Amino acid sequence: MIRYLLLALLILGTTLPAAAARPSLDPAGSGVWYEIFVRSWADTDGDGIGDLNGVTAKLDYLQSLGVSGIWLMPINPSPSYHGYDVTDYYGINPQYGTMVDFERLLREAHRRHIKVIIDLVINHTSDRHPWFIAARDPADPHHDWYGWAGPHTDLHAEDAAGAQAWHALGKAHYLGDFSANMPDLDYDTPAVRREMVKLGRYWLKKGVDGFRLDAAQHIYYDFKADMDNPLTLQKNLAWWSEFRRGLDAVNPAAYVVGEVTRDSADALAPYFKPLNAVFDFPLAVQLIDSARDERAGELGALLARTDTVYRKVAGKSGVDAPFLSNHDQDRVMSQLDGNAQHMRMAAAMLLTLPGHPFVYYGEELGMRGRKPDPDLREPMRWHRDPQGTGETHWKAFSAGDGPAVSVEAQRHDDDSLLHYYTTLIGWRRQVAALRDGAIREYPQTNPHIAAWQLDDDASHVLVLHNLSGQTQQVPLGTSRFRTLRLHSKPDTTLQRQRLSLPPYSSAILD
Ligand code: CA
Predict the structure, then answer these.
(1) Is 88 one of the annotated active-site residues of the chain?
(2) Could you please report the per-residue DSSP string of 321-384?
(3) Are residues 346 and 482 in the same domain?
């Protein structure tokens, strides 16, 4: 009997996922993720290019900010500065460091209860990937890993973005939905699917906590004509379900968030079945509009509807992945034309939404940046002096931000945007419903007030934001919300069921 038990233990021991050995991650964390472009983050070897040791070196900063996890933009070898065209999915970009550096980063992050997810760019490879180089030979098994035009293919077909989808290579043409440098993998080829499941498992075994899936809808959505084709959606979902099942065998708790650039909750919702979440692109537009206009507008209705639609698929509330902007969009402070109050209100709304809000690095300092893309991905400002220790300088600054836009200038200033972000993220640790609550519109008539109710098993709270530059009075009538729990400005008062909210301020009521 004992022998069988030992045998069972041995078998279990060899099949237990690597994740089981990890320290448990902070259960009462803020749930906030932080997106990092490694090249621009922090340089530790003096070449001016950010590196993985730089991410490790700044974990204390991220811990004090209060984030629960980081998303690293691509860290694999790539010929481009951004890394979204990979030449080796199992390797580390030598400009960023080594696998040993990455393993140390994972250990140090987990020690601080910070999770790490990495960008997985598997819709396409680099045209310099050995698979694609081999694929040029029709006799090579890798030929079928990519999409090739047949005799009846319309070579002028538009890709999803409206550009040319097919690219010439000698007499052949291959599919490249984003550019000629990024040939699309063919997911109808079983070997491709097997390889990508293997890849996902490899990184999970290494200790990463999940993935951000680049271009998640473009696995099968290659041509503009397929945008609303139900078969395309069905094939995307089938592939990501297969991928998810593959990951589950290693770590069922892995967090997988997809980039699906759609403009309605209804179009995004189906992806909540195979994935943990997709980024809420339509909400980002509304949050920034509401902050800029100083009016809630359709925000409350959008939030309530999104929660309803997502809950139907995910089976629970608090699953959304809201954000304000990412590496593909003008930075928030630029979208808000440098208005510091509007920036604060955008952040306050973002960070009082249930789910997993994503903050783009430098957003918490108010870094600006408008397209082209490299200008959205500029060096993180650690010091007043851009030549300070650890500062990257792979590119020059474009936006003209002064020394005040730096960690050094803001970290000890109680009125700084950085301090404000830290405070708001801290609210999420204190109030469970801010993380996982079901969201409901709170009916009130003041157009300058954005308000929503959040309910979970542990708490029922009312979130209110005064988006305007004037004090607003909010009558609460006979509602059950009677206690002022948290507020961002000292002269906030609740008397006789009447809330007085100072200009550009936020409050949470129990
Ligand atoms: Ca470096």
Answers:
(1) no
(2) B-BS--TTS--HHHHTTT-HHHHHHHHHHHHTSSS--EEETTGGGT----SSGGGGSPPP--SS
(3) no
